[in-house]
Amino acid sequence: DTRQGNILSFFKKS
Amino acid sequence: MLELRLVQGSLLKKVLESIKDLVTDANFDCSATGFSLQAMDSSHVALVSLLLRSEGFEHYRCDRNMSMGMNLNNMAKMLKCAGNDDIITIKADDGGDTVTFMFESPNQDKISDFEMKLMDIDSEHLGIPESEYHAIVRMPSQEFARICKDLSSIVDTVVISVSKEGVKFSTRGDIGSANIVCRQNPSVDKPDEATIIEMQEPVSLTFALRYMNSFTKATPLSNTVTISMSSELPVVVEYKIADMGYIRFYLAPKIEE
């Protein structure tokens, strides 16, 4: 099974 | 005071058509570097990053850095009123709450002004780290669009795998499975038709086709598309914008559980 990843878990707020 | 004159106004029309369904509201940032935008879709699965460099404009005046919040659907509606050969000028006053789009026909016999209300948008600017990608594929943008469209009519996810053999798009669903392999095909005569793979190590990631399909709305901006992948990172789907900059779409992969 897969779940959709989230951009915020890869790129941090600058 | 901000005044940006873009002779090839169709580029801006195409940019808006390519992002208006992915992102509802966004801040356009204007600085000495250029006219740019960074925004996520509402579910934070995809991010779009646009840059139109100042050198690409015939006239570029931006007295101080400005951030203008716009509803992209409304902006697209206004830009649709510009002819494909029109020159588009974007104007705004410092601290104002509107932006004006001026369209000039090529022989100057028709001049239109459209004024649009700006919005206050709380946006989160994200730092995108410089990365060495495991695999970079450059291929004809129309070919990529065709593959995404074909596969999305069958299933909703795609596995993109890059190996020495080529780039493989695979799907598996209730009705069956599909595999499309594009082999490396360096074409000296027609570089836009080539498929070129730079690979440090094989990589394979799973993505939602719905987003990939949305990205391919940028196809009219460029004959080629570049897909950059690493096993630990969102994929980058990049369309270069003739001598001016780029539009990059980042998509978080599906994660095995």
Total number of helical segments of chain A? 0
Distance between the termini of chain B: 52 Å
The counted number of beta strands of chain A is 2
Structural class per helix/strand content of chain B? Answer: mainly beta
Q: What are the secondary-structure elements of chain B, in order, as H or E?
A: EHEEEEEHEEEEEHEEEEEHEEEE
Main structural class of chain A: mainly beta
Largest interface summary: A-B, 14 and 23 residues
Low-confidence stretches of chain B: none
Give the overall pLDDT of chain B as a whole number.
Answer: 95
β-strand amount of chain B: over 45%
Helix coverage percent of chain A: under 10%
Your description of this structure?
The complex is a heterodimer of chains A (14) and B (257). Chain A has 14 residues and is mainly β. Helices cover 0% and strands 36% of the residues of chain A. Chain A has no helices and 2 strands. The radius of gyration of chain A is 10 Å and the shape is rod-shaped. Chain A starts with a strand and ends with a strand. The model of chain A has no long low-confidence stretch (mean pLDDT 90). Chain B is mostly beta strands and 257 residues long. Chain B is 14% helix and 47% strand. Chain B contains 4 helices and 20 strands. In chain B, strands 6-2-3-4-19-18-17-11-15 form a 9-stranded antiparallel β-sheet. In chain B, strands 5-1-7-8-9 form a 5-stranded antiparallel β-sheet, with helices on one face. Chain B has a 4-stranded antiparallel β-sheet with strand order 14-13-12-16. In chain B, strand 12 (157-163) and strand 13 (166-173) form a beta hairpin. In chain B, helix 3 (141-152) runs antiparallel to helix 4 (209-215). The radius of gyration of chain B is 19 Å and the shape is globular. Chain B starts with a strand and ends with a strand. The interface between A and B is medium-sized, with 14 and 23 residues.
